[in-house]
Amino acid sequence: MIYFFHGTDTNKARVKAHELIDSLLKKKPDASFFKIDSETFNASQLKEYIGGIGLFSNKYIVFLDRLSEKKEVKEGFMDKLKEIGESENIFIILEGKLDKVTATKIEKRSEKFLHLELKAEAIKPVYNAFALADAFAKKNKKEAWFQYRKSIDAGEAPEALHGMIFWKVKTMLLSGMSGWGEVELKRAMNELVVLYHDARRGKHELETGLEAFLLSN
Length: 217
Description:
Structural class: alpha/beta
Number of strands: 5
Shape: elongated
Oligomer: single chain
Strand order of the largest sheet: 2-3-4-1-5
């Protein structure tokens, strides 16, 4: 079963997708939740989610987050589209702007779909970049991740977001006024430094590395 959200208004589409996920998890608290994006895509894993049923739950809820951003991932995903649509498990598919052929193929296989387009005068999304730093400082992982993805979708560079979070950690460390311990802050600062330099060396993409950092702190 597929629920499909797509269009140029990526912020609203992501919000709608997460609202649905939250609703489904409340209705099916024993269901297993999984997320796959273009960086973590694995064809074998997707096949398992299509046909598998959790040991202690009736269904899997699987979030496919913008798989079409990479050509090879898109091809692997689209090859399994028919099976995904026929699966007993629930798949929430989120995409940005798609070509008409691809969008139509997914829509035809979907239980429900929502196409969200920005108005011409609102092509550049408006967002509060400092909301990310504030959410991180409050240890609100869910909100920090949401604000991070919102900023990335709005076109903000990962380097700028990394700098903002680094600045926030440094400020909290110097002021001593936060819900963080000194050891925690020093560890976070060290992780951010290593993360940045590893990205410069090509060990990973800064965007995905920073996302992982936010989800683990």
